[in-house]
Each structure stands twice: as C-alpha cells, then as structure tokens.
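Final report, section 2: Outcomes. Of the targets proposed, Thiosulfate reductase molybdopterin-containing subunit PhsA is the one most frequently requested by collaborating groups, and we therefore present its record in full.
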Amino acid sequence: MLEQRISRRTFLKGSLVAGALATFGGKLVPLEQAEAAEATSPAASQVVPTICEMCGVKCGILAHVREGRVWRLTGNPRDPQSSGRLCARGNAGTKTLYDPDRLKGPMKRVGDGKFQPIGWEQAFKEIGAKLQELKGRYGPQTLVWLAHPELISPLEKHFMAAFGSPNYTGHGPTCYSSRNVAFEQMYGGVPGVDYRNVRYYIAFGRNLTGGIKNPDIQKIVAARAEGAHLVAVDPRLSDFAFFADEWLPIRPGTDLALVLALINVIINENLYDAAFVAERTVGFAELKAGVATYTPEWAAKITGIDAATITRLARELAAAKPAAAVDPGWHAVTGSQYYNSVQAARAVAALNALLGNLGARGGLAFPPGIKLGDPSSIMGPKPPAAAGPRWDGAGSEKWPLNKAHGMIQVFPERVKEDKPYPLKAVVIQHLNPVRSSTDSGAFIEALKQLELVVAIDIQMNDTAYYAHYVLPEATYLERYDPLMTAGNKVVLRQPAVEPLFDTRGAEEIIAGLAKAAGLSAYFNFTLEQYNDALLAPLGLTQAQLARVGVAEVEAQQPDYTKLKTPSGKIELACQAFVKAGSTLTPAWEPPLVEPGEDEFRFIQGHVPMHTHTTTDNNAYLHAIMPENELWVHPSRAGKLGIKTGDLVEVASRVGKVKVKARVTEGIHPEAVFLAHGFGCGVPLRKLAYNKGANDSALIPVITAPVSGAAAQCETLVTVRKAG
Ligand SMILES: Nc1nc2c(c(=O)[nH]1)N[C@H]1C(S)=C(S)[C@@H](COP(=O)(O)OP(=O)(O)OC[C@H]3O[C@@H](n4cnc5c(=O)[nH]c(N)nc54)[C@H](O)[C@@H]3O)O[C@H]1N2
Ligand SMILES: Nc1nc2c(c(=O)[nH]1)N[C@H]1C(S)=C(S)[C@@H](COP(=O)(O)OP(=O)(O)OC[C@H]3O[C@@H](n4cnc5c(=O)[nH]c(N)nc54)[C@H](O)[C@@H]3O)O[C@H]1N2
Ligand code: SF4
Ligand SMILES: [Mo]
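The predicted structure is given below as tokens.
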C-alpha cells in the first residue's frame, strides 16, 4: 500500500491520503487527521516527510515533531533510498539542528577569528556593492563560486550565468572525477552496481560499509545473506574488508596492475562474454593486444598479491557473469586518490564489459530517467555569454575530458598568480575546502589574499573562518529545496520546523545576493514556482508532493543498445583518451611517488559515523568517534618506538600534524592511514575544536593527468614520536 503508484488522477482524487504517514498516539494515520488533531492538542505529534542532508545521499526521512521540536528522525518507508532505515549519521540529525554552536545569524569579519552580527539586508548591500565594484574593475570572471553540488546548484549556476562568470566549480577532483571521466568516455555515463542481485563482487578500495550509501549497504547485506561472494581489495582492513568474504591487502597505488592482470586472464582463457563483446563494445582487439604482457606473475610483483590468487579471482569472477561486478568505485582508487586513478577506472570499466554485465541482473546499471519540466521561462532573461575561459583551465585544450568537474585544488596557486586573469572574489557554499581540498595552509593564504570571500554554511567551518561575510543557511530540517529525483520517484525536502535562528534558505540568500549585485531580473520567482515548473509534466505541484514527500512517477528505462558514446557502444579502445594525451586502451602507469625506507604513503578515507568535515561537532557522532588516529603497522611502529595511544608527529613537505597512533596489522606496512574529517581549527565549534588531526594539512597540491583529480594519496610522510 505504501508503495502505491501515483498517477495524476489518483493523486488528485486524494487516494494517497490512505498512505500518507503521520503518527498520532503511536498509530499510523492519514496526514490530514494528524494535522487536525494537532490543532486541538498541544502535545500532538506530527510527522513530516522530508530529505536527510547528513550526507549527500539524501535518503527520504520522516521528521517526528512534538511541540515544535524534532525529537526523532526515522527512514521514510516509501523512499527508494532509505527504505525506512537510516545510518548513524541520519539518525543523529537532530543534534545538527540543535547544535548550540551553529550559526545563528549573518556575520561580518572584523579581525582574525573575530566576527560581529550584521543584518541580512546590510550584508547583501555590502556584498552586492563589492561584487559590482570588482566586476567593473576585473570583469565578471573574477568571481569564482565553489560548492558541493547540491539540490540548490542549478540556482547557484543561474546566479553565475547572470553575473557572466564561467567559474562555478564543484568538489569533483577531490572525490570522483577520475572515475567519471573514464566511464563518461567509455560508457557514456557512470553506472551503478545492482548490489541486491550481484553474486560475485570485487571492490577496489570502495569501502561500501564505511563510505556509506544507505541503499547500497542494505542491498549488499541482503545479497551476501543469499550467498554473494564479496572481495575487498584495500591496503587497510577497512569496514568493508572486515565484512567481505576475502580481504586482499594490496600495495597502495597498484590496483591498476591487478585489474589489468584480471583482464589478461579473462581474455587469454576465453572466459569473457563473447556475444556481448561483439555486439555491445568496440576495440576488443586493441584491448587484447594492450594487456598481453600484464600477466598474473607480472602483477604479483607489483601488487604483492600472488599470481595464483589473481588467476583464481579472474576465473571465479567470470564464472559468475553476468551477475558479477567490479565496483566502478567512488572516491578511492578509481575516484581521485592516485595519479593513475583514470587508468584504474578505465581498466575497471573494461573488465566489467568483458563480463557482459551492463544492464544484466546483478551487474552494472544506469538509473532510470524522469522527464522534469523546464523552469527557464520563470527565471528571467537569457543570461549573457560567460566571459573568458574558466579560471582553472577545465575544458581547455589541455583538459578536454574535464569539462564539468573543475580543479578546485589549484585555487591557491591561481589566486597567487593572477593568470590568465585576476581572481578577486569567491562565494563558497556548502563546502569546506580548507579541510576538503589539498594543502590547507595554502588555501588559507589564498583566502587571505582575496578582496571578497563569502561563505554560505550552517556552521562556522574552517573556510568560513577566513571569510569576510558568513551567511547562515537554514538546516535541512528548516527549509525547502529544489526537487530531487531518485530512481522512479520524486522526493521533496520541506521544513519540519520553522528556522530556529535568523537563517534563510539558500534560494533566498542567492536571490538576495543577486538583487544587491544588480541582477534582480533573474531572480523574480519563488522556490515553490520553480518546483512547480519542474513537476508540471508529471501533473504534480509542490503543495501536493509536500503531503507525502515521495511520489512514484513515470520513468524511462535506459537503452543499453544506444550508449551516449560516439559508437553507441562501450569503447574499450577510446580515441578521446589519446586526444587527452593518454593511451588508447588501459595501460600500466606506476603511482607518482614511492615511499623511501623512512617514509610512508599517507592514505585516508571516510568512517561510517562521520561525514567529511561536516559532523565533527554533532554531539551524538562526536560521542561515538571524537577523534582520528594514525594507523601504523607493528613492523614499522616497533622500529620507531611507537605504541598505540602515543602522540606522534606526522610530517609531509607541506605540513605537520600531531595525532595519537594506533598500531595495527590492519594496515599495509608501506602506508599510514588517517580517517578524514577531524582536526577542526575553529574554536567556536567547541566539541570538534582541535580533536584529532586534519589530513588535508599534509597533502600537497598535485593534479593527476587526464581527469585533473587531486591525487590525495600521492603524499609521502615521516612519522616520529612527538616529544
Ligand atoms: N559515513 C560516511 N559515508 C560516506 C561519506 C562520509 O564522509 N561518511 N562520504 C560519501 C562520499 S562523498 C563518498 S565519495 C564516498 C566515499 O566512499 P569510498 O570511495 O568507498 O571512499 P573512502 O571512504 O574514501 O575509502 C577509501 C578506501 O580506499 C582505501 N585505499 C587507499 N589507498 C588504496 C589503494 O591503493 N588501493 C585500494 N584498493 N584501496 C585503497 C582506503 O584504505 C579506504 O578504505 O562515501 C560516501 N559516504
Ligand atoms: N584529505 C582528504 N580530503 C578529502 C577526502 C578525504 O578522504 N581525504 N574526501 C573527499 C570527498 S570524497 C569529498 S566528497 C569532499 C567533500 O568536501 P566538502 O564538500 O567540502 O564537504 P565537507 O568537508 O563535509 O564540508 C561541507 C560543508 O557544508 C556544510 N553544510 C552541511 N550541510 C549544509 C547545508 O545544508 N547548507 C549549507 N550551506 N552548508 C551545509 C558543512 O557545515 C561543511 O562546512 O572532501 C574530499 N576531501
Ligand atoms: S546515507 Fe545516512 S546520512 Fe546519508 S542521507 Fe542516508 S541516512 Fe542520511
Ligand atoms: Mo565524495
């Protein structure tokens, strides 16, 4: 009943009310009744269906409100992502809403670490005047907008288009750019895994149960219960390595060799899906020739995984095809961590193609598409053509395959150089590049050099701390957002409670900035009008969707016979990479750095109980994990005289941090590991301040070829006991 299908007719007839959820007196009742009951009873509970924002996955949730307070968050059983269940961070959302240290109103910088309150209108007026002045002096391209792409991004991009700047830039190069570049070229898009039905699964550093995507975990857990075989390749005993059937502690940076050898075995032993390869791919002969020398014996020497194991994996993987998948990955090996990440992602893409798993049960799949409306008719005149090339060179001749992802890590260098044009102003929304990009020290120096830094956040983060103006957005439980789609459903974020403080929704903040910068004509619409325009072809409105939060709609299934590549097929040999200065088929490239005898490779990753640098001040999550520790192998720790709990100094060529050590066999001897998301440098965040160490302070600015990713694990460090 809850998963009832919604067509326009049934929706308007109100049949959804039967499935609309609210608890009153502990019983599920239609929303109308709960609203009516609340009007007569001050102690009434109300349940508001909305969307979690404790991480970017955006699971559908139910906010349980009593006497104007959200007292509990649960998964919305109608939602395709949460299916009624939340992760630790989703459950802890109330502590972000009620965090005593969160931003409570707009602030203006008056000195180092000193801010004073400023009214919204005054802040807009001052920022708008400065933006106009800088635009007049340097041109519109002097403004960069840095953001974590979110539901609000189309409106941020609209602001930048109206301003005339091409410089909207996301976090891709610190996360997924290499994977995306590889799959975009070879598959015409980035597929996911059918985790629920997979029978044999290999993850190259995809830490499924640590870098959590709630729906994926629920599915892989169910698949494993039914006998799926899971293999974790990771130099560290990660959360997923602990959960999987096999853990292969590979030498860091060498996964590419292992994937190439798997391809070699599957081709040489004729274990591939020949019909699929013939019909749905191009370039098989070139791939075959390209991997001829990548034997298991060759890969064993590079990776430290023995040849027999590599051969066995290849045979087992192929035997389970097409319900066999190698995870395209997310942030780690194939995403951004290594200089050879694009090659690794290309090899993973080719290996999957040999299994014939695209579109097959238990293989790789593209999500269905929902046709939303075009809101441009309410968004004002056509924006002017953007001035000049992008600030970071993305999409230029040197970076032809990185059109959309940008290169945020080169920001400090570009601000310093003033080439090809001066960068003088930045707006930073929902992003903390001082701790999430590389070389924190250099990023801070760049912020200090700018004439205008505006941060839009829910808390004073390490980047906002250097801003001239800090504009507080209402948290996800206090605001609407542009509509979202998930699978064949549309989902709405809506407020569970009124804003607790003097905060606003991002759409209001962006419109306020636009009006003050002389761009009123572009922002004469409300968010509700915008959402209604998106929903129009589906016969729905925001007000209707608000009652249920999630609605199932018509969706188009992907056509796997016509991929969005030049050939319409999977491009095993791909000319686009040759044009970008790389090889025709995936080929071995060593990682950029090799640790010397006294050095370690510095690797990082995410933990299940925190999201990046966002949740370190959340009281519940802080209680579970207050700080990070440096994982060191006993064979190395012994020589350095380091025991678990000792304070150690970790130094790279760009920074130094102090942190407690954890001596464990769960880490490759060549590497040390530090969980990302700690070492907050803002005293105003009392729980998080100075707890653990900031990994990004140690990472030099490196830009990987082809994708322009930030290659965070190409960092060498030394470790010694701190005095
Ligand atoms: N709880 C939680 N969940 C999250 C997030 C979060 O912050 N917290 N963030 C979300 C986001 S934005 C993302 S991108 C994903 C990230 O999810 P994942 O892509 O799974 O990435 P990481 O957490 O970065 O995990 C990196 C893993 O790579 C391993 N690794 C390092 N070097 C190598 C190597 O050379 N070879 C191999 N095989 N492995 C290596 C590390 O030990 C670590 O276990 O998680 C998402 N989900
Ligand atoms: N060294 C190292 N660096 C990494 C990683 C790593 O493992 N190691 N992981 C990388 C990965 S995978 C990613 S995706 C990036 C993520 O990097 P970022 O996108 O910068 O994410 P966070 O560090 O969590 O910072 C997000 C900011 O958004 C704010 N925020 C949260 N909710 C809201 C909201 O509703 N509105 C507004 N306006 N702000 C909000 C938070 O308070 C926080 O300050 O980091 C990358 N950087
Ligand atoms: S995965 Fe967890 S934190 Fe992320 S949206 Fe879902 S419940 Fe929220
Ligand atoms: Mo990410």
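The longest helix spans residues 120-138.
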